[in-house]
Amino acid sequence: MLDVLEGFGVIAVVIFAGLMLGRSGVLGPTGQQVLARVVFYVATPALLYVTISSTDIDAIFSPALLATGGSAVLVFTGIFAFTLWSRRRSLGEATISAMASGYVNIGNLGIPIATYVLKDLSFVAPVLLFQLILLSPIIMVLLDSTRAQADSQWWRPLLMVLRNPIVIGAALGVAGSLTGWRLPEVVHEPVSMLAAMSVPGMLLAFGISLKDGWKLPPAGSRRQLVLITVTKLVIQPLIAWLIGGVLLGYDGLMLMGIVVTSTLPTAQNVYIYAMEYKASAQLARDAVFITTILSVPAVVVAALLFGV
Fold this sequence. Notes:
Elements: H1 2-24, H2 31-53, H3 65-86, H4 91-102, H5 106-118, H6 124-147, H7 155-162, H8 165-179, H9 185-196, H10 198-209, H11 219-247, H12 252-262, H13 269-277, H14 281-306
Helix pairs in contact: 1-5, 1-10, 2-8, 2-9, 2-10, 2-13, 3-4, 3-6, 3-11, 3-12, 4-6, 4-11, 4-13, 4-14, 5-12, 6-7, 6-8, 11-12, 11-14, 12-14, 13-14
């Protein structure tokens, strides 16, 4: 379990570096926004392309994905509907809340946990591809719709989605994976360098957002934050266990992998998307912060309960 804590520690160090940058003021008052936009428009699309194009697309059809992906879809749909219609919140807040509840940090936490807890990296690729290829474009459609709600021309939301850098990066990655085509090395190398900036850039931007400290959100947002946290760390793993263990009959390491990957905290790119679309950015930041802290004992408990 020490290696798992080391994985969380790496993230904490980079976030702390961002916090120190924010406190120092060396990036100026708009430094966080600029960094977040670089991550959104440049680094993350490059990461999507590099990751997906170099991965066998068949990995997304792993049988275990019925449990991990199914739990994410059920959680996303449930929180989205509840927030939008029962709580009568905006489309942007409903989308960010749903994403924060079901979009796991599989990239920079999933890999060390799969390596040191599950001893098997095969659990990472299906969840990663599922989120990048299927969930992300849907989320982008919903978020782009918040920018086009006042526009009566039906084709503008579609055009915005097609121009979205996240969608473009994922689409190019899928095309590369399906065809086997690869960028010339002289182009691929700089794209890979840009891709490597995505995760640390997200963490730095998140750390900068904490420069003024963390306070409990207002009562209304506090209830939403509790809902997101409980859903992310308790309900989603429980649904994954029900689908994987009860319905599909998995046990042992496979069931452990399903539950542990579903217990991972909210991904940092939820906050980046929320900032870019000006949709409940503080709620997204708080969800990432709280679920990341609480996921340490949650992952340990899941590993102990289902360990083989």
